[in-house]
Amino acid sequence: MHCFLPRGLRLGKLVNGNWEVKSIINIYKILIIVASVLFINSTSYSHHSNAPHYDKTKPLTIFGFVEEFEFVNPHAFVHIKSIRNGESVIFSCEMLPSNTLMKQGWTKNTFPTDIQVKVNAIAARRNPLGCWFESAETMDGIKIEPGGVAVEFDSGAFNYDKPVFINNVPNFKGPWKRSPLLGFRSLASPDANTSGHDPSGGSSPKPGSDILTEEGLKAGNEHNAPLDDPALQCSGASIRRVWGNPFSATDIIQTSDFIYLSHEYMDVKRIIKLTKEHDDGYQNQLYGHSIGWYEDDTLVIDTIGSGSGVLLPYPGVLHSDQLHFVEKIKLNDNGLGFTLTWLAEDPIYYKKSFSGIMHFEPSAYDVQAWDCTFEKANR
């Protein structure tokens, strides 16, 4: 794997035969970029929805010709014409989102039509011609893999010299992305009478009766994770899911009266009114009615009115229309990252709260259109 350093991000320069480091900020930026490439390599299979659809114990090698390359979101596909049991067939290998692959140097022309390739993949659990793409090699020895394309990054999206505070308010101007170094983890709930739990991930078991009420268990048991994933309807599902998508950017715009959150994943846009009282007469909507306020270096967002829905599609945790979701976004001391602590309470479905923490760092890319359509999502 190759990774060129970004323009202007060299560690230093030679001066009279001695190497002088340019700045600690430059080193910080380089570490972020290198970690991002390694992160995409290490998570290409473990992305949230893969395990229910693909069996990693069944590797697959396909020899054939590229029939079509779909460079789209929420997942790209390469279709390979091959021979199986003496008959011509077309394998369809799913990949990471095009927005993610693009940041690794991929384009819509990465797999030209009719090029001869050898594809290493993971077999689908149900579709005999379905697969998850791992890597490919052309007949002239060129290797193609997620995170493995040499690309010079454009680091101009994030302003590393921005002030940490503006008028005594923490400056959350991004764009940001989830940290590949720190990721996310479960966190004990702030409520002493409950224990927080973050069961995200395709391999995590569904919560049991110690955490969910009878209503919550019933709703979860009726949820078929591979088939009922809201992403198949081009939906971000929940605030937790939108923040947790590992490869997409988020930007935060602050005004004196509102906070505007722009998430790349599923093109989710949220507006948070700066107040401590929810408006009367609000109507339920997918991402709820959100208000917010500042506590020193932390932005607190309080959300109700989400309606019934899915908190975590994998392994399948649902919520009623009584969901109360709290986000606490704490800016790092240097302003070059933040931690997001979240808490989900639901008196109808949960005996105990769900909670967790995620870490975010500067993104080298601005928020880009996700452009999901029903046809693209349902494969």
* Strand-pairing-aware structural class: mainly beta
Shape: globular
Proportion of residues in helical segments: 10-25%
Series of secondary-structure elements, N-terminal to C-terminal: EEHHEEEHEEEEEEEHHHEEEEEEEEEEH
Q: What are the segments in which pLDDT stays under 50 over at least 5 consecutive residues?
A: 1-15, 17-24, 32-43, 148-153, 186-196
Mean pLDDT: 83
Multimeric status of the protein? single chain
Radius of gyration: 22 Å
Helical run tally: 7
Q: Main beta sheet, described?
A: 10 strands, mixed
Strand content: 35-45%
Number of strands: 22
What is the number of independent domains? 3
Structural description of this entry:
The longest helix is centred in the N-terminal third of the chain and has 19 residues, at 24-42. The protein has seven helices and 22 strands. The chain has 379 residues and is mainly beta. The protein has helices at 24-42, 50-53, 98-102, 214-221, 225-228, 239-244, 374-377, and strands at 12-15, 18-21, 54-70, 77-84, 87-94, 116-124, 130-138, 143-144, 165-166, 169-170, 176-178, 184-186, 250-254, 258-263, 269-274, 289-295, 298-304, 309-312, 317-319, 324-331, 338-345, 354-362. It folds into three domains: 12-42, no CATH class; 50-144, OB fold (Dihydrolipoamide Acetyltransferase, E2P); 165-377, no CATH class. Strand 18 (309-312) and strand 19 form a beta hairpin. Residues 1-15, 17-24, 32-43, 148-153 and 186-196 have low confidence and may be disordered. The chain is globular and about 70 Å long. The strands form five sheets. Strands 11, 12, 13, 14, 15, 16, 17, 20, 21 and 22 form a ten-stranded mixed β-sheet that branches. The chain has a five-stranded mixed barrel with strand order 3-4-5-7-6.
